[in-house]
Hints:
Layout: H1 6-16, E1 33-37, E2 40-43, E3 48-51, H2 54-57, H3 66-76, H4 90-102, E4 109-113, H5 116-133, E5 141-145, H6 154-158, E6 178-180, H7 189-201, E7 206-211, E8 215-216, E9 222-223, H8 227-239, E10 242-246, E11 270-273, E12 285-289, H9 291-299, H10 315-328, H11 332-348, E13 357-363, E14 366-371, H12 377-386, E15 389-390, E16 397-400, H13 408-424
Parallel strand pairs: 3-15, 5-6, 5-7, 7-10, 10-11
Antiparallel strand pairs: 1-2, 2-3, 4-12, 8-9, 11-12, 13-14, 14-16
Amino acid sequence: MIPAGREDLIALDRAHVWHPYGPMPGRSDPYLVQSAAGVRLRLADGRELVDGMSSWWAAVHGYRHPVLDAALAEQAGRMSHVMFGGLTHEPAITLAKTLVDLTPPGLEHVFLCDSGSIGVEVAIKMALQAQRALGRPGRQRLATWRGGYHGDTFHPMSVCDPVGGMHALWTGVLPAQVFAGPPPAEFDPVYAESLRSMISAYADQVAAVIVEPVVQGAGGMRFHHPEYLRVLREATTEHGIFLIFDEIATGFGRTGRFFAGEHAGVSPDILCLGKALTGGYLTLAATLCTPAVAGAISAGEGGGLAHGPTFMGNPLACAVANASLGLLADGGWADRVRLIENGLRSGLEPLRDAPGVTDVRVLGAIGVVQLDHDVDVPRATAAAVARGVWLRPFRDLIYTMPPYVTDETDVARITAGIAAAVAAG
């Protein structure tokens, strides 16, 4: 029998539960959440916090949304899961067709995955298998730019920032990839030419270029000029290299466009989606590709893509993803993201002159305050919680990516929580 008391539960958590990016046991106790509704998390001690993180950027509709709850319950009444090998079902078929209709032109085939990191693994496998099938087996490396983050499994780790990222521990173990410098916020013709030169110099080794378009997420919450995506598109096309966009964090409206690549009007050969795909309800990702990529793989020696997760195409996840996309279909998300953007700008801009702050940046429903030192995460988090806000700073960044249903009053509360975290951190 598990004890129900808050202190007992925290003690069990401390003894047995290993939390992300931390030691075992943890250096500080986590906050115990009892329930969540709308944009609020209710803690076991009775406090309510406005969620400034959308559960790591996924819960774009908030919590306990009636439409998503109903979709999940209805699908559970039919079937919760069935293997995807040799079988199919309506939720997956509908989701695939919807994603093809929503994504940039040319992406016609959908591979459903377990999580964002696995979606990137699948994208890399697609590129490597297709190049091999096209008679270019020497193209086994990937190219990207510094400052990126693509997940915690092995090949995605290899294209995360090799110095400032979270995976420097694995240097020498991971495949050695090709890196350009981090992309500047403004357009720099010299940097653009360096991208072209890099791709040309390594063309006989590189299977694909992979980047997060416009916004680099967990690698540093940096924004870059969309024109660099057009440069990459032109250079990869010229050399027969595939272009992969990792839109796991940026997809479904977060940057003010439905997909961040739309800021440049560019279509990739392979696209990775996740996080907000199910509105934060269940883990699900999707990797889309062009007929050229799928055709090469299918005609190659393997006869198909060498990947097949046990929970691929999970009906519950697909059903709630369809409901989530349905909520976004009316386009109202754009106005809501614009209101959040305006609120973040007005609330965070005064922090530009605060002690220790080096930059303030806002794009869509993303607000970032960068410090000149690493954040004291427990202190900064506690300061935000005292203001009724949940934030999760990392490295030198205190940031927010709130649910799209966050109103102006709660956006103001979030920015006040960020200000408190900056002062404490």
